[in-house]
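Translate sequence into C-alpha cells.
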Amino acid sequence: MNELNIENINFYSEILNKNMGINVYIPKEYKNDNTSLPVLYFLHGRSGNENIIFDLKIAQKADKMIKENKIRPLIIVCPRIENSRGINSASKCRKVLSSNKITINVGMYEDYLIKEVIPLIDKKFNTIKSRNARYIGGASAGGYAALHNLFRHQDIFSKAGGHMPAIELNLEDEDKPYFPTQSVWEKYDPITIAKTNDISSDIKVYLDSGDKDEGHFYDGCKTLHDILSKKEISCENHIYKGHHNEE
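Result follows.
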C-alpha cells in the first residue's frame, strides 16, 4: 500500500484466461481486524484501465470528503474491464476491430466482474457483504456498464452512478462487435432494462453529463431518468457545462 492508501492487485482471471489488474482505495479508518466497510466499484471508460483511480484523483477526493464528513468511510475498487462494456459478448476472450477501427475486447466480462472480482474483494478485505453496502459507478463506457450491472444484478448492488454514461438510443454500427443482434443489445441496454423490468423500489441512481457531450449522452440520461421517475425510482440527472472528458 502506498501513501495514498491504494493497493494494486494483479490476479489471473480464469474466466477471461489472462492476467488482470485492480486498484483499491483503502480509507485510513479501515482496520483489518474488525472494521467492515461498504464498497464502491468504479469502472473506467473504453480507453482507460484501473489507473482511473489516479487519473481522477479518487483517493485524494475520498480522503477529503471523509475528513469533512461528507461521506462515510468506504472501499473503492477500480477493476480493469478493458474496452468491453462490461458485458458477456463472447465465450472466448479476444480482440476485434469495430467499423471505425477501434479495438474492442469481447469475452465474458460481466461474469468476470460478478463472479471473480467481487468475491476476490470480499475475501481479501473486511467488506459489508450486502447489496445495501455495495455500489457501482463509472465514467463513459464504465458508466454504461455500471448501470446495466445495477439493473441486471439488483441482488448485488443498491446504488449506481453513471457519469457521462455511454447510453445510446439506438444500436450503432461501431458497437456491433459487442452486440451481434438487436436482442443482445437490448439485454444490456439500461433504458430497455429499466423500461421492461421491475426495478427494486430502494434502488438509487445518479446521472450526469456535459451540455456539450460529443456523444450526446445527455439524451440517453434524460430518457432513462424519465423512465425511472415514472416508476418512482430515486434518480438524479444533472447537466453541467462541459464536454465528454475527465474535467
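Note: The first strand starts at residue 6 and ends at 13.
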